[in-house]
């Protein structure tokens, strides 16, 4: 489980983009920071979903929450594809880079959503 508070701001991210010995580029993420943690709204939504899932009494209730989570994951994949492009695909040097016109704020928004999904 990944942290959701600023107290773990020095935790290294698994979402590191290698600079191959070069200085970090703006889209690189080598450490998590306050921009990557769940917003209070996302944290509340996650808490509600976990509560609903853990209190489900039958398969129908589980399927309802599963459909909502599946839709969220699908949206997350769409967001990833709109924010990042894959470079050096099918090599040992594969990286994700921001698409033209995307900003580090777009990147951070994706990371927050990803935290929500894997939290």
Automatic annotation (TrEMBL):
InterPro entries xrefs: NleF_sf
Protein name: T3SS secreted effector NleF
Organism lineage string: Bacteria, Pseudomonadati, Pseudomonadota, Gammaproteobacteria, Enterobacterales
């Amino acid at each position: 489980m990944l942290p959701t508070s600023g107290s773990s701001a020095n935790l290294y991210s698994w979402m590191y983009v290698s600079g191959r010995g070069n200085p970090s580029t703006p889209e690189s993420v080598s450490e998590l920071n306050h921009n990557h943690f769940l917003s209070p709204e996302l944290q509340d939504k996650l808490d509600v979903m976990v509560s609903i899932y853990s209190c489900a009494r039958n398969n129908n209730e589980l399927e309802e929450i599963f459909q909502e989570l599946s839709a969220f994951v699908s949206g997350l994949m769409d967001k990833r594809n709109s924010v990042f492009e894959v470079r050096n695909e099918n090599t040992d040097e594969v990286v994700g880079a921001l698409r033209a016109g995307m900003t580090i704020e777009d990147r951070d928004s994706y990371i927050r959503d990803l935290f929500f999904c894997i939290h």
